[in-house]
Design brief:
homodimer; 230 residues; 6 helices; DNA-binding; alpha+beta; seven-stranded mixed beta sheet; elongated
Chain lengths: 230, 230
DNA sequence: CCCAATTGCGTAAAAATAACGCATTTTATT
DNA sequence: AATAAAATGCGTTATTTTTACGCAATTGGG
């Protein structure tokens, strides 16, 4: 049963792909974690991920594991760092290519399937298995950097949203507060937003306008990048 | 002779670390390449790099290979992407963690040692082995991004340099032209430069001032980051 | 019924960026 | 040798961008 069929002249490490999945519930940023059912770190929480097959890239591996463990399909994952500390896995030599993805919360209902997947707010994340604490730290930093150069709201917000929700998203990720009116002016001037519905005639002041992303502008900024000075 | 001693239940990829080494000669950016002496891609140029040992991280591997192949010691390498296309190496399944480093040209004299290492200006780089063309492309992009947030001149310029040399460095990396006087004002206002020598009394207009980096400020910016709006 | 909170829309001050002037001195050119 | 072109240091002035707020209307909570 325990055949060791694949042999090499020199020792080879195992390679895994892990996924840091970010979501947004309108107020705070969340990450998707899986509770480990086996040793090592049994019972501890960790990122979805697993061993890379010999005929797939790390991104493909990340997407496959993600679907297997959380049911989430076709997420757009992006690698951000490879962790290769010699003792990061107590069993054997494993290096992991860490990825992250942004998804709408509605697409993954925690506590799905077999795996016990659950969303955690950033300030509720427990101590994680392996070196996943460090991986999370770096993923968060990368997310903060990215939000300043690329629009990312589309992946995290519902189709239609209010300006306040968009601002909450930026504030949650960057951990800062903006002046509401300046944020409003800036976003409108960028031209990235389109009014979702013509504001109804009977709409009163406290009924906020609904926006959606201007797909054309959004794609343009995705490619050319922009510079959000916050 | 050809023992295959290390056996696993599932196939494992080989893992390598490659290094994109950037240098600057006062006018243009250069990369350090090695001409391959063996198949595959014999005779083609490629980045220094090689197989990761089981008890080292990818960064350690990158530094070790770099020293073995170019004599360059203790370079500060930083990984930027892991390339895992299934067919990127025609022999076997190999994924590579690509790193880059910035060094002073004087520290590596091309055509050293056994290996035939040579510096190439960016616009003279030939078609490279494996997927190294793509690796270079991504390394260049990363360098462009980094230069806007961190001072990097210290690694690339000689100890003492003129404002024009510094500007040439930025222009070479970003492939843009700046107004000389605005660049001058900006750099001085940042406070990152210190005058290397008190300008000699007999110095005439066309004898440029010499600067060095203000180590304190330089380190501060390294950590906190800055924002160069170009 | 009153008060705090929310929303849309502006405007003025402050700061940063971009554009360019100019005298002087070298080096290159005719 | 005379002249033109390029390099350097040090400014100044527009232009644009960012920041800091004002204000009225409306709503929900107490």
């Amino acid at each position: 049963m325990n055949e060791q069929k694949f042999c090499y002249k020199y020792p080879h490490p195992s390679v895994t792909a892990d996924c840091v999945i970010f979501g947004f519930d309108g107020v705070s940023i969340k990450v998707l974690l899986i509770q480990r059912g086996i040793e090592p770190f049994k019972g501890k929480w960790a990122f979805p991920g697993g061993f890379m097959k010999i005929d797939e890239t790390t991104e493909e591996c990340a997407r496959r594991e993600l679907e297997e463990e959380t049911g989430l399909k076709n997420a757009s994952v992006e690698q951000f760092h490879t962790f290769s500390d010699v003792s990061r896995d107590p069993r054997e030599r494993v290096i992991t290519v860490a990825h992250y993805a942004l998804v709408r919360l509605s697409e993954v209902k925690g506590g799905d399937d077999a795996a016990s997947a659950r969303w955690f707010a950033m300030d509720e994340v427990p101590s994680l298995a392996f070196d996943h604490d460090r991986i999370l730290q770096m993923a968060v930093n990368r997310l903060k950097e990215r939000i300043c150069f690329e629009p990312i709201g589309f992946e995290l917000l519902p189709e239609v949203f209010t300006m306040t929700e968009l601002q909450n998203l930026y504030e949650a990720i960057l951990e800062v507060k903006f002046d509401r009116r300046n944020f409003y002016n800036k976003m409108l001037k960028l031209g990235i937003l389109a009014e979702a519905e013509p504001r109804p005639a009977n709409a009163s002041r406290r009924t906020p306008s609904k926006y959606r992303f201007n797909a054309e502008k959004y794609t343009e900024f995705k490619q050319k990048g922009f510079r959000l000075e916050f």
